[in-house]
Amino acid sequence: MACKFISNEDTNKWLEALAKDHVVFVPVEDGGSVTFRPFAEGRKPVLDRMPVRSPKEAVFPQTETLLTYKYEKDPENPERTAVSIKETLPRERAVVFGARPCGTRGMSVFDKVFDNDRIRDPYYATRRENTLYITLACDKVESTCFCHEVGSGPADTTCSDVLLTPVQGGFAAEAVTERGGKMLEASFFADGGDKCAEAEAVKKATREMLGEAHDYSDAPEKLMAAFDDDEFWEEQAAGCINCGACTYLCPTCYCFNITDEPTGTTGKRVRTWDTCMSFQYTLEGSGHNPRTVKASRLKNRVNHKFAYIPDTYDKHIGCCGCGRCIKSCPASVDIRAIVKAAQARSVKKESK
Ligand code: SF4
Ligand code: SF4
C-alpha cells in the first residue's frame, strides 16, 4: 500500500473539502457519548477514543423509510381504486471518517447478509456502494478490546478504503482500495517519507499491547455442545436486564423490523433496528414465543456471533472484538467470558 502523510491542520481542510459533495460522518461528542454525526465546520471530530456508537449507522440507519404509498378511490365509481408506491432509495454519497478498524470490519458481516448471491437489499447495497470508509488505526487499547482474537486487529483494513495511522503532527495514510487511492490524490497529502516507518511502529506497538490471543476456533462446536444446558445459560444471563444496548451498539448486529405507518390514505413503510434481546422479537402472531426466557435470548446472541455466522460464512466470526457490548452493558455481561466458559465447560465435561 502506498503511504502518504496528512498534517492535523490539513485533515480538517480535507474534511471540509469532502463535505462539499459528501455527507461526512465523523465521531463527535453528542448527548454525553461519542457518536457519528455529519461533519460541520467548527465541529471537532473526537479521535482520541473509540466511539460508543458504531459506524454501521451510515449504511444501516436506525430508522429509514423504504417506500411511501397512496391509496386512491374514485367516489363516483367506488370500484375504481389505485395504489401508487414510491421507492425512496438513498442517493447521497457519504464518507465515514475516523471509525476504528473493528467498527469498519463490522461491515463484512453486513455485506455477507445483505448483499450476497441470493439476496440484494437495495437500500443497504446502494448506501454501501456510495459510502467510503476512512478508518483510524488504534494507538492504544482498552481492557474490553479483543479484535486480535477474532481475526481482526488494531490496524485491520477489512472494508476500509483508506487507513490512517496517528503519527507525530498528523496521520500516515494508506490506500486500501482504488477508491481510497483516488482520495489520497488530493493536494492535502504529502509523500509519506519517514512517517510511514513511524506508522508501522505504532501498529506494531498497539498489537503488542493486546498480548496473546485466545483461540476461539472450536467455539462453534463447544457452544453447540452447550446448547441444551439450561443451567449454563441461566447462569450466564443472570444479570441481563434485556435492555438491548449490546445489540444496538454492536457493529455487526443487523436485525430489523418493518412497519407501515398510515396517515389517512397515504403512508410510509419504515425499517427500524430490532433486538433479539427483547421478548417481543420472537413473539409470533399466534401468541407463541419460542424464546420466553432471557437465557434463551442471550444464548441466541452469543451463538449467532460465535457459531451460526462462522458456520454459515466460512468460519468468519460474527463479532469484531470491539468490546462495545461489554463496556455499555449495565449488568457487565461479557461475551468473551461466556464463550470461554462454554469452551471450558466442554473441557470439564470431557475430563469427567
Ligand atoms: S446490554 Fe447487557 S443487560 Fe442489556 S440486553 Fe445486552 S447483555 Fe442484557
Ligand atoms: S458482540 Fe460485542 S464485542 Fe462483538 S462486535 Fe458486537 S459489540 Fe463488539
List keywords for this structure.
metal ion binding; iron-sulfur cluster binding; Hydrogenase; 11 helices; metal-binding; alpha+beta; eight-stranded mixed β-sheet; four-stranded antiparallel β-sheet; 352 residues; binds iron/sulfur cluster
Radius of gyration: 23 Å
Taken in chain order, the helices and strands follow as EHEEEEEHHEEEHEHHHHEEHHH
Tally of structural domains: 2
Q: Which molecules are bound besides the chains?
A: iron/sulfur cluster
Strand count: 12
How far apart the termini lie comes to 52 Å
SSE class: alpha+beta
Sketch the major β-sheet: 8 strands, mixed
Number of helices: 11
Q: What fraction, in percent, of the residue positions are helical? A: 25-40%
Uncertain segments are none
Summarize model confidence as the mean pLDDT: 95
Quote the beta fraction: 15-25%
Adjacency order of strands in the biggest sheet: 3-2-6-7-8-9-1-10
Shape: flat
